[in-house]
Amino acid sequence: MNAGIIGAGIGGIATAIRLRNKGYEVEVFEANNYPGGKLSSFEQGSYRFDAGPSLFTMPQLVEELFELSGKLVNDYFEYIRLPEICRYFWEDGTRLNVSANTQEFAQEAEKQLGEPAEKTTKMLKDSAFKYEILSGLFLEDSLHKLSTWTSAKALKGYMNLHRLGIFNTMNAANEQFFSTPKAVQLFNRYATYNGSDPYQTPATMNIIPHLEYNIGAFFPKNGMFGITESLVELAKDLGVKFHFNTRVKEIVVENKKVKGLKIAKAEEDKTEDFRAFDIVVSNMDITPTYRKLLPNAKHPEKLLNQPKSGSGLIFYWGIKKEFPELGLHNIFFSDNYKVEFEHQFQKKSIYNDPTIYLNITSKYKKDDAPADCENWFILLNAPANDGQDWDKLIAEARQNVIDKLNRNLKTDIATLIESESILDPRSIEMKTSSVQGALYGNSSNNKFAAFLRHANFSSRIRNLYFVGGSVHPGGGIPLALSSAKIVGGMV
Fold first, then answer.
1. What angle do CA 211, 380, 8 make, to 5 degrees?
2. CA distances from 241 to 17, 32, 208 (A)
3. CB atoms within 10 A of CB 464
4. CA 411 to the chain's CA centroid
5. Is-contact 183 113, C-beta < 8 A?
6. Rounded to whole angstroms, how far apart are CA atoms 118 and 123?
7. First vs last Cα of the chain: how many Å apart?
8. Going by C-beta distance under 8 Å and a sequence separation of 6 or more, which residues neighbour residue 111?
9. Axis-axis angle for helices 60-68, 477-490 (nearest 10)
10. What residues does 423 pair with on adjacent strands?
11. Are strands 311-319 and 329-332 parallel, antiparallel or unpaired?
12. Contact 229, 222 (CB under 8 A)
């Protein structure tokens, strides 16, 4: 038996490992000349940057792949648990360094924000409770199988439905929990972890803080791209074959069953070669999978036409100075969070007072920047590409970022930038085939979001499966790895 996998994103690589462990001969076809999809890396002069995801949580999902393969994790992959989660900055001068110790975090939030420590502690316990109930149902099993809804896990969910926040928004729930606007804003920001608006997305998304605070935030010793590198090495050691610069042109279907793939070398786009496979798994965004690779199949138009998640605008700056007041993860908050999200999702623009996420891997991986310098990865919440004038938006956003950082850090950032690259929704779509440059597929800005993602299998075409951030259970490294586990369990 053999399997063809379309795309070497983290979900595709993990699926390849799982299928190889089931005895399949596995080949992975990737249009780019590198693996990882959004979880990739690049060098800019003397600086190295992780191109996409910058936060590592739930390392057990990575470790599980090595254990499944009978390999020692440390032979391939090493990481540390971070002693600090994030550093927060507000325009009025308030600063909060969040310890990985939840009690210390709660006490510091009381000291700096005026938020009673017991409320923060209660919030994190509630997040853990929600995760315990929802993870088995939404993250580990297919929502598109009857057995999921008749399981013991589902019954436990039904019994606690009133506590899961399905009928409330994240912001409304956080306003009920906390007494200070800054604490509400801090926990509202977790909506951005799946490209959502806290004023629209359901309060079930308050399971996300549990991953970061109660389980922990981690850092791979070789940077985030180390996750990709280690899993590719594992896959190759198991016998998985990777074909880079190779574009899949069509999923060939006969009698409602997968027969194989038509492929072409990227530089020879017109030359097609048919390869027979018993099963096919697409790690490509679900929309182009249907639109481009399954032209003759019936398309699930309702799902494909759902509004898309948020995207991002990223500046990669080589900074010729070190800032001791900054950590690995830093947030500079907007003074009007609600208006910022209105700009992103209603006006399809970027607010002139953006919340800035600043990641500096050279804080832990010193060779990512020259001595006495830092590699700054700056991410702004941005709308999906809908034909905006991105050149104008980028120029305005860049100046707004510089002005905001200058105010908060009392410096002149513009004079310190010695190298720069930019990634916007247009280039995200071009490099990763993510429709409109949306980072997490369909939007999660409604209470039915979990049900508006495509299943991990085709109900119309036998032996066709789907994995990655645009299908169930969603986007981000942990969910992409979870989707691979679900597919592995189905095949």
1. 65
2. 11, 15, 35
3. 21
4. 32
5. yes
6. 9
7. 11
8. none
9. 30
10. 314
11. unpaired
12. yes
Phi first, then psi: what are they for 183, rounded to 5°? -65, -40
For 211-278, where are the E strands, in sequence order? 218-220, 241-243, 246-254, 257-265, 273-276
DSSP, res 116: -
- Contact between 375 and 47 under an 8 Å Cβ cutoff? The reply is yes
139: tokens are 């993250």
Please compute, for residue 355, the number of CA atoms within 13 A of its CA located in the half-sphere on the CB side.
Answer: 24
- The two tokens of residue 359 are 């990641």
- For the residues of 286-305, what is the DSSP string, one character each? HHHIIIII-TTSPP-HHHHT
Torsion of CA 11, 17, 23, 28, to 10 degrees: 60
| DSSP-derived 3-state class of residue 184 | helix
pLDDT in tens, the chain (491 residues): 999 999 999 999 999 999 999 999 999 999 999 999 999 999 999 999 999 999 999 999 999 999 999 999 999 999 999 999 999 999 999 999 999 999 999 999 999 999 999 999 999 999 998 888 777 666 666 555 655 545 555 455 445 555 555 678 999 999 999 999 999 999 999 999 989 999 999 888 898 999 999 999 999 999 999 999 999 999 999 999 999 999 999 999 999 999 999 999 766 556 679 999 999 999 999 999 999 999 999 998 988 888 899 999 999 999 999 999 999 999 999 999 999 999 999 999 999 999 999 999 999 999 999 999 999 999 999 999 999 999 999 999 999 999 999 999 999 999 999 999 999 999 999 999 999 999 988 888 876 665 668 889 999 999 999 999 999 888 899 999 999 999 999 99
- CA–CA separation, 314 and 44 (whole Å): 14
Instruction: Return the structure tokens found at 233.
Output: 């090495």
Measured distance CA(317)–CA(378) in Å, rounded:
8
Structure tokens at 78: 């090493």
Contact by Cβ (8 Å): 215, 100: no
Instruction: Report the distance separating Cα 175 and Cα 14, nearest Å.
Output: 39
Residue type, 361: T
Task: Retrieve residue 59's tokens.
Answer: 């390392």
Q: What's the rounded Cα separation, in Å, for the pair 464 and 409?
A: 52
Selection from 280, 277, 275 nearest residue 262 by Cα: 275
Q: Where are the beta strands (DSSP E) in 192-243?
A: 218-220, 241-243
- Residue 323 tokens read as 């800032």
Say if CB 262 and CB 274 are below 8 A apart: yes
Bridge partners (DSSP) of residue 265 are 246
For residue 52, which amino acid is it? Answer: G
